[in-house]
Amino acid sequence: MSEEQNKLEKIKCGIIMPISAIDGCSEEHWSEVQGILIEAAASVKNYDFTTMMVSEAEDIGIIKKRIVQNVYNSDIVICDVSGKNPNVMFELGMRLAFDKPTIIVKDDKTNYSFDTGIIEYLEYPRDLRFTKIVDFKKRLNSKLVATLEESRANPEHATFLKSFGQFKVSALSEHEVTPDKAILESIEDLRNELFQITKYTMRKMPQKNHFPQEAIMKTKKVIDDSYKELAVTTLDELVTQIDLYERILDKINARRYFPTEEEFKDFYDYMLSIYNKKTVDKLSGTII
Known about the structure:
Organism: Clostridium magnum DSM 2767
Number of strands: 5
Order of helices and strands: HEHEHEHEEHHHHHH
CATH class of the largest domain: Alpha Beta
Strand content: 5-15%
Shape: elongated
CATH topology of the largest domain: Rossmann fold
Helix content: 40-55%
Oligomer: single chain
Protein name: RNA helicase
Strand order of the largest sheet: 2-1-3-4-5
């Protein structure tokens, strides 16, 4: 870092934007947009901008807490509402509730949102055409400086909330704790997060040996016989030619094994997933 940069005031700039595929745009597209936003902030001459996603942090922490803290603590936030990602709109809502300096950008394929229509948007081309992106970065550069300086010079400056009347702006309270207590709280947060992840994963994963073996074997026979009867080679072909769900339901007397239709649906999905992954030994009928 140069001596001149060391003398500049450091500004923490948060980014709120999509990171995964949405509205026909890939993950790589959003990564490129993120780079454009970071370059625009880095080119500001008056300040030394440190720009990162609000979900990022140098220390280890629970992501939900980290996002809220960064949304609040950032000196200024750039929010890209392109594609109107629900998480992005929620995080933008939090930032606007704090009524802190915020710049909203969007691509030229995304419609304006009514609720934030009083805020000026900066627009860029979704195809990221070079000449227009150069112009966009210049406009964003100027907007960053102007918004930051206006918020400091004018006590009445308001991004959004105060435009509708007098409100007490939300704030995050902070309190000091001993290192031991901080570590214990972090461990407890991690345990809770891990529990939620495990619970979600277990709900989504097919359960091994969860269903009656007799029902599995009978269903395997029904499916294998159906393959032979219809002379098909793939599961997709099979389910398009017959109502496999009803056939299995009838042939194995499913109500004997599954008291509710929901339980049978779970079993049916499990069997199809096995055939899709080809993890049934067709000779022995062993479930891997």
